[in-house]
Known about the structure:
heterodimer, A: alpha+beta, CATH 2.40.50.100, Chloramphenicol Acetyltransferase, seven-stranded mixed β-sheet, five-stranded mixed β-sheet, B: Non-ribosomal Peptide Synthetase Peptidyl Carrier Protein, Chain A
Amino acid sequence: MSEFRMPALGADMEDGTLVEWLRAPGDTIHRGDIIAVVETVKGAIEIECFENGILDKIVVSPGATVAVGDVLAQIKEEGRTDVVAPEPRTKPISESPDRAVSILSPSIAAPSLPIAAMSLPPRRISPAARKRAQQLGLDIETVQVGPGGVIGLAEVAAAQHLPQPSTAETPQPVKRGFQPDGMRRAIGAAMARSKREIPHYYVSSTLDLSLFTAWLEDANTKRSTQDRLLYAAPLIKAVAVALRSEPALNGVYVKDNYQPSKNVHVGVATALRGGGLIAPAIHDADTLTPDEAMARLRELIPRVRAGRIRGSEMTDPTITLSILGEGTADSLHPVIYPPQVAIIGCGAMRERPWVVDGAITVRRVMTVTVAGDHRVSDGRSAARFLNRLDKILQEPQQL
Amino acid sequence: MTNDELKELVRKTLFDVAPDLEGEEIISDETFADQFDIDSMDFLNFVIGLHKATGVEIPEKDYAQVATLKTCVAYLESRMKP
């Protein structure tokens, strides 16, 4: 018998609310299966299980909020059908104190899982509706969701004429979707911890991306609209490949101990409209083709914005990449997301006068900044990484 | 398709891409990106949506021409078969 616990889905999570069980007691479950949905300030997170067995007993019922590490359910290991069978000679795995940790080990990746059909419609609230509800003194959480799971101005208007439930008598509804205020507090807490514990250093280079963008534009003119690549896709790949030979930047720092990672799981910083930021993992980004990386982004970004994230996507990143995007600003000096030990910030692409072969010419450039953790590495690691990234981006056809 | 119908089609395509914006007023000569935090992924999906709905292929070099409601409607109008 082993225990399925409330996972820590990021450095900033203390508790979570169990929203739904997707499997029932008696069901056979496999490693990577999504078996429960947990609500956090970041939205509904789909929790995978990391072993094979039979879901034996559900300990926590939907609606309950429990602390990270609390037991949610018990899983009977496969092949051990009788729980009262004589104990084997060897110590059962479930008694090992490390077991609970290993079940949720961030190093176990479960890439390319099918999307679980979520039975909960995500609760999306338009900024205009939120504003209007506030003006009317309406609790937006009590407004009925309209078609498509959206709360717009029409839904707020309809709710205005309904009697407001008395908060004293009504049980708190389970909140759906990400909560901007809660998320802002969580980001604040994680970043304060990062700045307190991690001695940051910053190293940056401005890279000439003219060949890279020319290659991309050429590739995109040959493609139909829906197959076009965003530059983020090959850039993620290039960053991941460059990280392979810089183990001091790619890994996690847990309990005064740095664990470099062989796999490069890139957390891609994704802004949520209405405020907030999530950086879910693109697993093994160094092994993907640009098209595969694009396919992952296409699937991941809308899903995360709709408030549906998988547990492994929150716990697995070994590095974070933040791409500001076009029309924004020249450079970004990001703050490391614990337990990671580095984060990379990319500014917007700009046309700048540039010296090539002794002559001044116009080139498209991007400033890339690495924030590193002095407990693990020095600026030289970051500088080596940036030089390698530069080299890779000068041969985009190799990506 | 009339100018008003095209305007409605553009609005609907944008809200399909970003359902959380449903019901928002769109200022016709300000870019979608400036008004609503539309990023490159949203914009690509918007262009794909317009292509599906109208058959008009919008190459990357023309993205600036479909960045506001006003110019987007004009762009589609000039390229759609009457």
